[in-house]
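Objective 1b: paired records.
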Amino acid sequence: MRIALGVEYAGTHFCGWQIQPRLRTVQGELQKAVSMVANEDIEVFAAGRTDTGVHALNQVVHFDSNAIRDERSWLLGVNSNLPQDVNVAWVKPVDEDFNARFSAVKRSYRYLILNRTSRSAIHHNRMWWHYHPLDVQRMQAAADQLIGRHDFSAFRARECQAKSPVKTLDMIKVTSHQDCIAIDVEAKSFLHHMVRNLVGVMTAIGEGKKPVDWAGEVLRSRDRNQGGITSPPQGLYLVDVRYPQQYSFPTVSGFPVLW
C-alpha cells in the first residue's frame, strides 16, 4: 500500500533533505525510522528538496510498503524512531497514483527576517538577522514586479536541475510586526534557491541600496550575476504543499506565525 506523511523538521543540523553518504539528512533519518516500523527497506519520496539549514512545517512524503499498519501505528512507531528535530504530524493511506512531488498543485514558503540592531540568542537558527533597517513598502513594491509567469533565470542557482527556468509566481506578500518581517511566497514549483534569491533582491531594495525598479531589471536580465545575494537558509520554511481536493490531507499549524 502507498502511504502519505506530513513531516516537519528543523533543518539546522541536517545537510538538507536528500540522502547523501555519511551525511545527516532528513530523508536518511526518515527512511531509517519508516523501515524499522515496516520491517523492510523503505524509500521515501518528498514533495520537494530543501537545502542545508532550511526548515519545513508540512513537507509531504510518500512511500510504498507491504506492511499492514493502521495510521496510528505508523505515526507513533515512526516518531518513536526519529530524532527530536524531525517529526511526522499526520499519516494517510493514498491510492497508487499519488506522488508527493508530481501530484502537488501549489507550494508555499515563508522567509523570516529579524530586523533590529542586535542579534538574537533565541532566533539565530530560525530567522535571518538583518541589522540595517528595511522598508517593507519598498520590498512589497519590488515583489509586485515579480508576480506572474516569467523566466526566472536571474534567480536560479547555477546547480539548478530544472528543465526550464520559466515559473509562475502566484503570490509574494511582505508583512511586518515590530522587528520581524515575513515574506510569503506561493507557486506550483520553484527553481533551486529561487526564494532565497528573491529575498536577496528585495532586502537590497528595502535597505535603499537599490531602486524599486531594480527587481524588474534583474528579472528581465535573465542573468544570475545581475541579481543580489542569496539570503541565508535559516530564515526559510517550507510551510505547506497543496494537492487536489480528493486527497483531503490534514491541515497543520501555521507556525511560525509571528502575530
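Objective 1b, second protein:
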Amino acid sequence: MQLRLENFTKKFDNLTVIDQLNLTVESGEMMALLGPSGCGKSTTLFTICGIHRMNGGTLHFGDRDVSNLPSQQRNVGVVFQNYALYPHMNIRDNIAFPLRVQKLDNATIAKKVAEIAELVHIPELLDRKPAQLSGGQQQRVALARALVRKPDVLLLDEPLANLDAKLRLEMRSEIRRIQLETGITAILVTHDQVEAMSMCDRIALMKGGKIVQLSEPDQMYNDPVDTFVAGFLGNPPISFLDAQVNADVFQVGPSQITIADSLRAKVNGAVKLGIRPEYFGPQFGTGITGKISFVETQGREDLYNVTLPDGSVLRSIQAAGPRLKLGDSVNWGISHDHALAFTPDGARI
C-alpha cells in the first residue's frame, strides 16, 4: 500500500511545526523518519495514524484519501515505545484484542493469533501475562498485535528505545525480517541513525519540521547535501575542518590536502572539509600532523582523536593493534577522494 503525504501542515495553537511537507512511501517499503528531538518526526507519525489532525494537506493510502477519517477507520498498525500492552490480559488476549473489536468469530481469531505468534517467534508465550515477559518479548507481542489484523501501514514509534544494546541488535533484524516477510508498508520513527540505516530502504532526515534529505542509507552517508546531514550520520561522527583553497590543495593550517579531480573546478576560497574517521589514518600516507588527544578501545578497533596545531580535531578509526597513547605525535594522511567539501555556511559543494 503506497502512502502519500501532500502539502502536510501541522500547527499547535499558533505554532506551525510542519509546513507543507511532501512524502511518498512506496508499497512494501520501510521508511525511516530520522532526526533530532523536536524535528517533527513523531508529529508526522501521529498524524498518519490519526492521533493528530491535519491543519492542511492530504494523506492518501493508495487511491484512498484518509485525511479526515478517524484513526479506527484508517487500518494502521502502531507499535509504541512503551509497547502499551494490557497488563491484565494474557498474551493471547492482547494479540486478539484488535480482532475482537472487529467482531470476528473465535475460530478465526484463534487461527490468526496462532499464525502471527509463529511469525514473531512467541507461540510458547501466549498464556503468560506481559509482566512475565522480557522487554524483547513484549516488543514481539506489540508487533504481533499491530500486524494481526493485516493493516495497510505499520507505524513504529521509537520501538527499540527501551531495550538494552544486545536486544536492540536482535530486534532490529527481527523487525526487518517480519516487515519483509509480510511485505507491509512501514514507517519507523527514530533518532538513532544505526536503526534507520540498518532497517530501512530509505531515510527521510528531518530538521525543523522539514525533510532535509530523502535517500537510501548509503547515498545519504556518502553523498550528504549539507553539514547537518553529514554530521548526523556516522559513528564516530565526521570531523569538519576550515580550509582555504590554494592552487590544487586545501590548506588547513600548515597542512595541505590534495584536492580530488572531481572537486577541483568547483571549489574556491574558504571551504569547510568533512573527513570521516575511516578516511584518516596511517594507511593514507602522511601530511597531517597532530597529537593523540583521545583513545577509545572497542575490541576489534581503536578510535582516536587527533588534535591539529590549530586546535582542530580529526577522528580516526583503526583496526586493533599496537595502541597509541595520549600525547603521542602522529603524521597521518587523508583519502583526498573521500574528502567532502562544503561552503562556509554548510551547503554541499
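The radius of gyration is 24 Å. DSSP finds nine helices and 20 strands in the chain.
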